[in-house]
Write a structure and sequence with these properties.
The protein is of the alpha/beta class. Helix content is about 35%, strand content about 25%. It is built from ten helices and ten strands. The protein has helices at about 5-10, 15-20, 70-75, 110-125, 150-160, 170-180, 205-220, 230-235, 260-285, 300-310; strands spanning about 35-55, 80-85, 90-95, 130-135, 140-150, 190-195, 220-230, 245, 255-260, 290-295. A six-stranded mixed beta sheet has the order 5-4-3-6-7-10, sandwiched between helices. The chain has a two-stranded antiparallel ribbon with strand order 1-2. A two-stranded antiparallel sheet has the order 8-9. A hairpin with a 2-residue loop joins β4 and β5 (about 140-150).
Length: about 325
């Protein structure tokens, strides 16, 4: 694939979403701290626009930073301090399991998640931030671009990974174990998945996933779970007297057969309980949960995600 940023972006982000990106920025509510210059408010003093405070002048300080109005009030030399601007490290963790293959056309879950991930990466790289990413697919890890870097080649590599066919299961414990030591200080971690069946072999997989993500949060990282669901998964629209057969796209569970009316009530009850546990778990662990439905406009999904990151009220049409 070409390393041209425009071509890489067009491969995964549809035109209406690319148009929305014009003039947009990726903004976080909290300050970041890092060694690279960027556009985010920093935890340390430096050269920037936001006033931080005064400190006494010391020999060797830049005299251009003397605040002469404050000197007149205090009768001593003081320096005006401002917040510096640092680059943010954004790491995208993507579920490319077979379960994300559900849906046709624009409602395909992985296609929806890939467009959002590509849009976030484009915004970050355009404003001088660094991006890393990793995928879990067919029971294996794809970690070649996990450590955050900037530049057009990073966007092209991400697009190439997102365009590969989903398959098998996403090994979340191994993926998070690999990601943790590669995260720079105070990173933004975005996880894209349907979060429906993290590990069919482990009945406590949901709790373990939240525990591992909470460990990242405890180290000072911001963690956002972008849950992408299909409308069919939320509503179970199948009906009729015929016999239906449902197969696990991840290949880990036995097929289920039955009449739709008899399956629907039990399925929706279990789904509701699962989603409620996920919401409570995220709230208790300080994790941010952003839920999308793959048939909703991508523009609304992205605006809702950016609003959540910036701590603004989400648009009414965003979210499930």
């Amino acid at each position: 694939m070409s390393e041209d940023p425009a071509q890489a972006l067009a491969a995964v982000v549809p035109p209406e979403l690319r148009e929305l990106l014009r003039g947009r920025q990726l903004v976080l509510t909290r300050p970041v701290g890092g060694p690279h210059a960027g556009r985010h408010a920093s935890t340390r003093a430096g050269l920037g626009d936001q006033f931080r405070g005064h400190r006494p002048y010391s020999p060797g300080d830049d005299p251009r930073r003397i605040d002469w109005r404050a000197v007149a009030r205090r009768d001593r030399l003081v320096l005006r301090q401002t917040d510096s601007e640092d680059a943010l490290a954004t790491v995208l963790l993507l579920d490319a399991s077979g379960g994300m293959a559900y849906g046709t056309g624009a409602s395909n879950k992985l296609r929806h998640a890939a467009a959002l991930a590509g849009a976030v990466a484009h915004l970050a790289l355009r404003q001088g931030d660094r991006v890393g990413f990793a995928c879990g697919r067919d029971g294996a890890l794809e970690l070649g671009q996990l450590r955050p870097h900037g530049g057009a080649p990073r966007l092209a590599a991400l697009a190439q990974a997102l365009l590969r066919e989903p398959a098998g299961a996403c090994p979340w414990p191994a993926l998070l174990a690999a990601a943790a030591p590669a995260l720079p200080r105070r990173s933004l971690v975005l996880l894209f998945s349907d979060l429906l069946d993290p590990d069919p072999a482990d009945p406590n997989a949901d709790a373990r996933l939240l525990h591992d993500l909470a460990a990242l949060r405890s180290r000072g990282h911001d963690v956002v779970l972008v849950q992408v669901l299909h409308r069919d998964e939320l509503e179970f629209p199948w009906s009729g007297r015929g016999l239906w057969r449902f197969e696990d796209a991840r290949g880990a569970r036995e097929p289920r057969e039955g009449h739709a009316p008899s399956l629907r009530a039990a399925y929706l009850e279990r789904l509701g309980a699962h989603l409620s546990r996920l919401e409570r778990g995220c709230a208790d662990a300080g994790l941010h949960l952003h839920r999308c439905v793959s048939d909703q406009p991508l523009t609304a999904a992205l605006l809702g995600l950016l609003a959540r990151l910036a701590g603004r009220p989400q648009p009414a049409e965003a979210g499930a």
